[in-house]
Amino acid sequence: MAKLAELWEVGVSSVGKYGALAILIFTLAVAYEVAGIIYNLYFHPLRDFPGPLIQRASRLPWAIRHALGSQALYTQKLHDKYGPIVRVGPNHLTFTDPRAWKDIYGHRVGTEGDMAEMPKTRVFNKTIRSQPTSILNADREEHSRFRRALSHGFSDNAMRQQEPMIKKYVDLLLQRLHEECDNGKKALNIEAWYNWTTFDIVGDLVFGQSFHCLDNVDYHPWIEFIFSSIRFGAITVAMTYLGLGDLVQLLVKLGGNAIKRVRKYTDDMVRTRLSMEKDRDDLFEGLIKRREDWNLSFQKLSANAFILVLAGSETTATTLSGATYLLLTHPEILEKLKKEVRSAFTSVDEITISSVNKLSYMLAILNESLRLYPPVTSGLVRSVPEGGEQIAGHYVAAGTYVEVQHWSMNHSKENWKDPWAFQPERFLTTPEEAAKAGNQLEALQAFNVGPRNCIGRNLAYAEMRLILARIIYEFDLKLSDDSKNWIERQKTFALWDRIPLYVNLTPVER
Ligand code: HEM
User: Which residues of the chain fall short of a pLDDT of 70?
Assistant: First the structure.
């Protein structure tokens, strides 16, 4: 002790009181970090799970990759190396064993109340604390109320009522493509056209008014904000993951003007929707009807509208873009699809939400596209509740962050024969036959499973089948040279940071 005091005296006299204090704080911080690393590697409950040393030791590598848009792509490589469970952070596991879908996201059998499902991890879904609650980040009880209220708008019956409205925008898309394509001489960014269409459709289905993207042949500022918020969202998650949640709140406060503008714009659109006639058979009516009974605040109503528009447009446009790219890089598959679509109908008017259901090859193409280019690549993280949990045959301690990353699951050689090859045929057999050929069809869960799975799944399939069938029926397509390696050149921040996809469209002569 006397020796320490002596050292302190010598230190103070050579660097001054504040310098010595700074050195002491720095030394303690380093000691704290080193102790944390030793704990993570040798004493942590997850110490026996495989993963790269640096990721088992510290959260930093995962956070940096997540912020840079390479995390999901890198995690897939780790699964190739370490197998179906990887410890990607000291307290964080990812799985590619298909059993993990149910174990993580399914109903928890024999439990009720808050324990009936594995809760979403707040680090990933509530980084901005002032954000009002929506269906995506509500706790279990509020979530099931939102879900019940919204389910009517997503029923088959409601979709039948919504079809003329959906068709109106698909017609407009095709009309515009005919006007703009210059008989195949001009390359069009089809990824933007898909996005304009899906935004216009969901805008009408939620706000009762479209964003007029197809009218104006341009993005709406609201949508442009969404693209930048995908990147900003990844940074806020990475910072919160590192324990810098308070700093995130400060950043949001300082630079929150864009967020305020978007909230105001959403609020204005919700107000317009509220002033419309009652009993619209759209996606939002169910929530509006229960607003008074539940004393639902305007902020929560608006937050749900925002989520519906985001969830209902980006994902569908991503899948259509991915399917188009994959088709244009696999001419023999495109040929088969052309045959299927063009022999199924004798005129455009025959192409409807119910008639496209018979296009089984096209459905296989969409599923294979969802596998090779899943719109949500990662980020659906849950926290293991008290008592721990068995996941894919392994005990996992309480408090662990667990997830299935679609990108890794969909490219695992244990789940798929030739996992990187575009082979829609793998979806044309029964699950048993597919398994014999090396394809675990249940590994593909692009819409997730369990109580928080995608409520818009049927609507998404209807829109995608309708739009793709119309495009293939009316145009011959060719990939522009500058859109080669389109998927490989992208980053993904849980959602893709899509780049333009240029395609030449030549109208089919009939
Ligand atoms: C190809 C298209 C789509 C894909 C791949 C997709 C995927 C997903 C996934 C993976 C989830 C789970 C998110 C989580 O666990 O946090 C989800 C939830 C959700 N999706 Fe979709 N989605 C698609 C289209 C749509 C459409 C068209 C809508 C309708 C507007 C929609 C609305 C929602 C909503 C509201 C949720 C939250 C559900 C809940 O928490 O109960 N999605 N989606």
Answer: 1-15, 114
